[in-house]
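User: I'm putting together a teaching handout on how sequence relates to shape, and I'd like one worked example. Could you take Glutamate--cysteine ligase from Stutzerimonas stutzeri, show the sequence you're using, and then write out its predicted structure as tokens right after it?

Assistant: Happy to. First the sequence, then the structure tokens directly below it.
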Amino acid sequence: MSALLTHRLALLAEAPHLPLLNQCLHGIERECLRVDARGQLAMTPHPAALGSALTHPQITTDYSEALLEFITGTDSDPNNTLAELEAIHRFTYAKLGNEFLWSPSMPCPLPSEADIPIAEYGCSNIGRLKHVYRQGLALRYGKTMQCIAGIHYNFSLPEALWPVLQADDGDAGPIQDYRSTRYIGVIRNFRRYSWLLMYLFGASPALDAGFLRGREHQLETLDADTLYLPYATSLRMSDLGYQNNAQAGLTPCYDNLDSYTESLFRAVSTPYAPYEAMGTKDAAGNWQQLNTNVLQIENEYYSNIRPKRVTATGERPLQALRARGIQYIEVRCLDINPFLPLGIDASEAHFLDAFLLFCALDDSPCLAEGECGTATDNFLKVVKEGRRPGLELQRCGENVQLSDWAGQLLDQIAQVAALLDRSHGDARHTLALAEQRAKVADSSLTPSARVLAELRRHGESFSQFALRQTQAHADYFRSQPPSRAELEQFEAAAQQSLERQAAMEAEDELDFDSFVVEYQRSLSL
């Protein structure tokens, strides 16, 4: 364990500082496809009973009209966050009729590309902008890839902790700059070590054969309807589908916040010739993408982790980061665990807290020349063959067995978990870490191995297994519907969101073309 990590753990173990570790904040976003009773993509509109996908704070859609996204608030206890997520699921199932929420990350058998419905957000300018952005995604990457679902884990350190760390580091600059610098350091360490999360929590080693639409691939055939890789952990996070030349050369620099925002600013401001050839409108004059730049907007950049800041109304993410610095980080590489009704459980959340706090407290030098590429290579190697016996990764220019490196990392994270447990007065983080040690010792315990074992044991295709889990989880949620008070609260929120959307549509004064011009111009102001 590094001397710096040892020192910082000792600092936080001091009586005045230890309670601060109870104040880390957590939030979860869970995506899932709506499907019919046969496990086919639901072609129905977003249910009005769930409210407006544009303005509801907890229930929205991601890419497709059928791709729901559930968003919790923030809480210092991830158990409360999970309880909120469960309440959202229960309410949704109370309004879904004969539809279901698809359990895994990889999608159900999909209709033709043309028939996958893009999310609709009404006729307000901002609602149309969100729809056109998604049309641009379809144009650039295809619709199929956009139907993959995942879990995003939002995490922040307590605001009261930053002055303690800053004083200990002898930093006399503005606290906003110090906080942003340290969060960028978290991201660098996450880049170094996130392969471990894919081994431990990857849950997509197989997919429906139709997903690849006849494209060339290196997957193996499990049965007539299922493709897989025998040692894969997360095909969702592999390079199967994002064959995009525009983003291929876009690796934002994580030296500091300024270099990160500048690299994204260039991407959302720089035209890309193939997109210019397509144009922003089709032959009939209908919008088909917001612009012809490398990225239409900041969120188009596909990354495993993002620095984030809550935005004000009308404010773009880059503007918020530039003005007020990083507020929290969003972990985006987590698969949905198809064995869990919520796709994530408390044990995973507690381990993630210890892992992210380790990334925050350990030394995090800038990524040296070649290290960024090595981190990417290690990550892709684990998502494709992470359970291969004797698999070796690259560390500091040398080969190291995944199992050895994982054990060493877990030994360091164990010290952080122990400190978190002292702060909370229980053993939740140590117990969660013990579960992960067991997976390193026995790869058959990993979610990815369990998925393949289930397919073989039942003689099922991926989609048959997924539908079975989907129906089991539906029974779980429907067996305990929301209480009357919960139902009334959610119904009121749904109605308020519909009213807010109607008000936004009535308030618009600019025509849409002018609105897009103003939106594009806002970043350079």
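A couple of points you could highlight for students: The chain has one domain: 24-381+463-524. The longest strand covers residues 25-35.
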